[in-house]
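Narrative of activities, Objective 1.

The group set out to show that a structural description can be obtained from nothing but a protein's sequence at a throughput compatible with the screening campaign. Below is one input-output pair from the validation batch, recorded exactly as produced.
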Amino acid sequence: MAYLALYRKWRPMVFNDVVEQEHVVKTLKNSINSGRIAHAYLFSGTRGTGKTTMAKIFSRAVNCINSKDGDPCNECEICKGILNGSLLDVIEIDAASNNGVDNVRDLRDEVIYTPSKARYKVYIIDEVHMLSTGAFNALLKTLEEPPSHVIFILATTEPHKLPATILSRCQRFDFRRISVGSIAKRIEYIAGESGIDIKEDALRLIAKLSDGALRDAISILDQCISLGNKELTYEDVLTVVGLVTDTFIVEIVDDIKNRDVGRVLQAVNKLVMEGKDISQFVSELVLYYRNLLICSSVSDPKDIIDVQEDSLQKMKEQLNGLERFEIMSIIKELSSLEGALKWSAHPRILLEAALIKLCEGRANPAELGMMERIQVLEKRINEIMEKGIAVPGHVDNSHKARELGNTDKASETDVKIREKKGTKAASIKGLEVWGDVLKELKDMGRMVLYTNLLDSKVIEISSKVVGIVFKGGCSFNKMYVSKAENLEVVESCLSKYLGKDVRVKCLDEEESVETSRKEEKDELIEKAQDIANKLNVDLNIIDE
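Output recorded for this entry:
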């Protein structure tokens, strides 16, 4: 007897065997038990989630002589005839290869004939989105008013490609991706029944690789069993599917973070020499950076990413020194590489070039906002100052200063750059001391000024500018506070509590946001110019 693939051998025979599609199972079983059978159904969802399997079970259940609680008995003459293909009342059509208008016209001519033995004639049309426009038009009328003995079951992975006229004539059921836990449980059962002992970490790996498709997971298991081992380990699965180890991914991410081009290129060489799939490796790398992004965005990522506790801890350690926008930039770069690899005759060269680019830059300035560009510049300057790296075009003032015996001047640039990190904190503090400022004005006897400021609020416009926002209908209050002598008093109090000089602007609520953006932009330009001056390089500012 010819070998039967595992996914066919273990195809569910009754509704309750279908994994994680309870919302579909419950509705279909109730419709069978109550006799409320629709004339057209649409099963949509990603590959390997049970659409065709559910259609076959349903086709037997509606025709079964001894149906039990909505399930087919799989023992009666009708069920056996459908299972072995001898009963022609259940017809499966592949729309990918029968997508022309003539094929649908033939189907339309056939539906008028009654079933030979079964109660219903069931047409299962797989990948129905592949039908041509003419074929859909030819199917419309038949789908809307078919003979009472006909049931259509349409299955597709891309329901958005179906015309609205088809969708409106069907009862639609969306099949969900299957969870890693449920896939692992099913794989463990099938492996056990096949006499194979499979380790827990190997189970989880197969389940994760399947991406929510149980059929893919069973196919991977089938391939692993072909190794001939009675025990399947994590390394066996990696060998079969051509993946690298988690440790390899972690090390290469560390090397990119540390900008170690040599180690990165050695890792690529090892990857190629071991015969690993480059496209698959890039996909794994994208997924790993996605997990890093999730870890940087939420406090408890356990419910979102499926990794072991030690792996999660390692990811959190790798986040030190990595900004979120850098991770997103890396993901974009690797995703572009992933697409380019499909058409390249030299995938290794593309991979090496992309990884070198990540090591040298780790962020594409063209894709960053102004604030992010400033952060990149400040970060690189700090690295330069800490490591003592020479910068092209940078005048080493510290050397000249030492010759003159002026060490204070030599460290002036470094000090100013490091002080930038405290600017943001000081400006935020200004918002918190507003209550103290109002109390100071009251204690000074400036009661009129104090009362005109009671209903106002303050916002942080920039590190040097604080805005006082007045509510609508408070134009008199704004006009009074805006007087030069009054602004001088408020600025003096704010500067006292901040420990630095600040300017104050009086704003209406509607103009506060626009003014904040303009001031923030001006401050960023000023910071960029300051950094350029310290490095003795030219800076061209283009206002787009």
